[in-house]
Amino acid sequence: MSTESAPVNGDDAAEAPLVGPVVCAALRIEARAVRRGLDRTPVVVVGYRARRAARLPDACAALVTVGFGGALDERLRPGDVLVADEIRGPGGTAV
C-alpha cells in the first residue's frame, strides 16, 4: 500500500501519512467480491450505518463504497454498475 504525506487539518499543520484509496463494503461477501482484483488496495467491511466506521484509516486519499443492490429499480439488470452522484447524511441533506 502506498502512502504519501498530507497536512492534517488543525492549528499545528503537522504531516500525517495519507493512505491511498480504501474500499469499504457493508457485507463480507461484498468485500470478497472486490478484494480478488485489488492486490494493494485495502478493503474494509464496515457493516451497515456508521457502527464500524472506526475500522477505516484515519486519512485516505479516496473512499470507495461497494455493495450489492438487489431490487433497487426494475430497470436494473444483474451486472449493471450504479454510480451515485451525491451522498446524503442522516438528516437527508446532501453532503
Architecture blueprint of SSEs:
Blueprint: E1 3-7, E2 15-19, E3 22-25, H1 28-35, E4 43-45, E5 63-66
Notes on the structure:
There is one protein chain. The chain is mainly β. The protein has a domain at 3-66. It is 8% helix and 22% strand. The chain has 1 helix and 5 strands. The strands form 2 sheets. The chain has a 3-stranded parallel β-sheet with strand order 4-3-5, with helices on one face. Strands 1-2 form a two-stranded antiparallel ribbon. The longest helix is centred in the first third of the chain and has 8 residues, at 28-35. The protein is globular. Mean pLDDT is 74; it is low at 1-16.
Described by strand count, sense and barrel closure, the largest sheet is:
3 strands, parallel
Structural class assignment: mainly beta
| Cα end-to-end separation | 28 Å
Question: What share of the residues lie within helices?
Answer: under 10%
> What Rg, in angstroms, do the CA atoms define?
16 Å
Quote the average pLDDT.
74
The count of strands amounts to 5
Strand content: 15-25%
Strand order of the largest sheet: 4-3-5
Number of helices: 1
Instruction: Report the uncertain regions.
Output: 1-16
Q: How would you sum up the global shape? A: globular
Order of helices and strands: EEEHEE
